[in-house]
Amino acid sequence: MSGSLSPTLLFALGLFAALWLLAGLWAVGRGIAMQRRSAFVAGQTERLASLVEASPYLPVIVRSDWRIEASERLGRWLGISQGPRNFDELRGLDSGLDPEGHDALRQAILGAQRGAKPFMLSLKPQGGSRTIVIHGAAAPQAVGGPGSVLLWLSDATDGQQALAQARSERDEAMGAFEALSGLIEAAPFPMWFRDTSLGLALVNRAYVRAVEAKSAAAVIEAGIELCEPVAGVSAGEAAEQARLAGAAQMRTIPVTIEGERRIMRVVDVPLAPEGGRVIGIAGYAIDVQELESERGAHRRFADTQRELLDRLSAAVAQFGPDQGLVFANQPFRRLFALEAEDVSEARPLARLLDAWRESGRTPEVRDFPEWRQAHVDWFASTGAVEEDWLLRDGTHLHVVAQPTPDGGLLLIAEDRTEQVQLASTRDTLLRVRTATFDNLFEAIAVFAPDGRLHLWNQRFRRLWGVDEPTLAAHPRVDVLMGGLADRLSKPNQISIVQEVIRAATLERTQRAGEIRFADGRHFDFASIPLPDGNALLIMLDVSDSRRMESALRERNEALEAADKVKTAFLSRMSYELRTPLTSIGGFGEMLQAGYAGKLADQQQVYVDAIMDSVAVLGRQIDNVLDLAQGEAGTLAIERAPVDVRALLDQALADVKPLADSEKIELVGNMSANLGSIDGDAPRLARLVAGLLDNAVRFTAPARKTGGRVLLHADGDARGVDIIVSDNGPGMPEAAAAVAKGEQAGTATGGIGLALARQLVAAHGGTMEVLSEKGQGTMVRISLPRGA
């Protein structure tokens, strides 16, 4: 039994073999399934790889150790020859990312690794114009493992260019729109826009001002129309007509602008982009009030011009652009024998020339058709054309043809027959003038505007000693005078003659001068501008008058010296007289005071008379001294405030005894507003007292009774007026002398009046003397408040 297997063992072996077979069969089936699964996965992977390769996005895995997993397309996008396997290989010298972009991408990847923060970058590889947009985020664990970052790259070159272009076009459109909006808003005339409902949707600032509204929003909200209905057509209906017509519609209507009625040209323009549906109606209104006024004024000007041309002596005709006659004034009709139908039918110039030839109103020419065509071509000439026509009857015509801007022609004909006849007469007159010039006492020369000698007489030639051929060459003034300087006692004075001639020819001003020749003769010369642009030089021998003038000047100097001696004598004599007078006055005062004992009544009267005479003589000496100083210009005025009323009262009191003794009524009439002035009180007192004394003394002999002297004074803010008047015999000679600033004779109070005039002038005032024989004298003095 030991050599054979037991059934249990056999069963176990068979079971094991069966299990092994089953395991093999399961393994084979499992392998077949896995093979199929692998083939499916490989196919799927290949399809996904194809899809990724065909996709505009390129996936790139950056692992934690900065290795890169990507297709070869990454190298092509970055301009790298080989596909990068490490992050540092993304940066090259002339290709790949630039250092700045490489660092930016590194920092973004670090941020995604540390905080799983997604990012987006836009980079431009070196050496190309490609733009790559990178979207990055932490990679899933199944894709790249921990610390990996998944990048999705897309080529945005075309998109960025399209976007840049779109932005540029948008910016241009927005700029154009803003400029257009600004232009519309700043337009000086009203502009508006109506939407599809024909209601106002937009108005500019000028529109708001025109309708006197607060704002554009208020205009749109209230629907305020600029144009009032005209002939039953409102502004909205006019816009509707423009929309139906599909073209701009224009009308000229009256419109109220800022409260003023104006004529406006209103235009409605339908807006349809590229021939599409009308999206609205734009409108604007232009003020044509001035234009219409100018048109009316132009019509009135044309009518007035033709009326004026009818009154001219020159013959004038106007031809229109069609070469037809549209107007001819009366002289033109008479000169060329035109009928009314010639103008009404607008006959062309060519037909008129034919008619004028038959009537003898054109010059005789060899080839008339060619001549006529040449004159018809006047319409196309670029400027005025002038001709002289000699007619068969001896008439001389000067014809001017001026093309007009509208293509017409202005024809002017002037009869110069008389002028031709006058030219012959003028030649005769020129010969007479030449003969007259040669026989004048003055030396005469005429210089042209360019400075050349034009005419001269024989006296001019002989005066300067120039031969006839030299003058006949018409030399310039600088050349001519430059060679004549040695004729003068001072040769450099020749430039004065040249300057005088230049002033007359160029500046058109008359000038004069004096020169002396080397032989001692004196000449006055003058240059006179002539109407024709020339200059006339006249030279007159004044040698005799200069000698007389020299003699008179010497005599005048002698008189002035004598006058100075007289002034010095008066001044010295005044001082010399004052010394003994002071002694007399002093001794007289001692006698009055009783130093020599008590005086008898008769002695007292004598002493009083002596003191009165001393006072009078002292005043006269002061007057003479002041007069001498005034004439010498050395009169000194000591200014201080002066009470005018007190000064005048004292003057009246001083003269009162004399007036009473002479039986003269002395009257004072002074206002209350005299105030004070700045002046020399003693001299002003003597001034008024002297005038009153003169008035009393001159009035007393003439009037035994009824003599009257009046002192009147009044003042204002500017000054004081003092008037001394009398009803005496008058002194016209003294008044006339003072009015001329002269010194009158002593018989008429001349010294007193002359001194008064000097004192008043020294105080900055004025003095007026009015006198009439037999009626009295009035002296008026005006003194200012201040200096």
From TrEMBL:
<keyword id="KW-0902">Two-component regulatory system</keyword>
<dbReference type="Pfam" id="PF02518">
    <property type="entry name" value="HATPase_c"/>
</dbReference>
<dbReference type="InterPro" id="IPR005467">
    <property type="entry name" value="His_kinase_dom"/>
</dbReference>
<dbReference type="InterPro" id="IPR036097">
    <property type="entry name" value="HisK_dim/P_sf"/>
</dbReference>
<dbReference type="InterPro" id="IPR036890">
    <property type="entry name" value="HATPase_C_sf"/>
</dbReference>
<dbReference type="InterPro" id="IPR035965">
    <property type="entry name" value="PAS-like_dom_sf"/>
</dbReference>
<dbReference type="Pfam" id="PF00512">
    <property type="entry name" value="HisKA"/>
</dbReference>
<feature type="domain" description="Histidine kinase">
    <location>
        <begin position="572"/>
        <end position="787"/>
    </location>
</feature>
<keyword id="KW-0418">Kinase</keyword>
<dbReference type="Pfam" id="PF12860">
    <property type="entry name" value="PAS_7"/>
</dbReference>
<dbReference type="InterPro" id="IPR004358">
    <property type="entry name" value="Sig_transdc_His_kin-like_C"/>
</dbReference>
<dbReference type="InterPro" id="IPR003661">
    <property type="entry name" value="HisK_dim/P_dom"/>
</dbReference>
<dbReference type="InterPro" id="IPR000014">
    <property type="entry name" value="PAS"/>
</dbReference>
<protein>
    <recommendedName>
        <fullName>histidine kinase</fullName>
        <ecNumber>2.7.13.3</ecNumber>
    </recommendedName>
</protein>
<dbReference type="GO" id="GO:0000155">
    <property type="term" value="F:phosphorelay sensor kinase activity"/>
</dbReference>
<keyword id="KW-0808">Transferase</keyword>
<keyword id="KW-0597">Phosphoprotein</keyword>
<dbReference type="InterPro" id="IPR050736">
    <property type="entry name" value="Sensor_HK_Regulatory"/>
</dbReference>
<dbReference type="InterPro" id="IPR003594">
    <property type="entry name" value="HATPase_dom"/>
</dbReference>
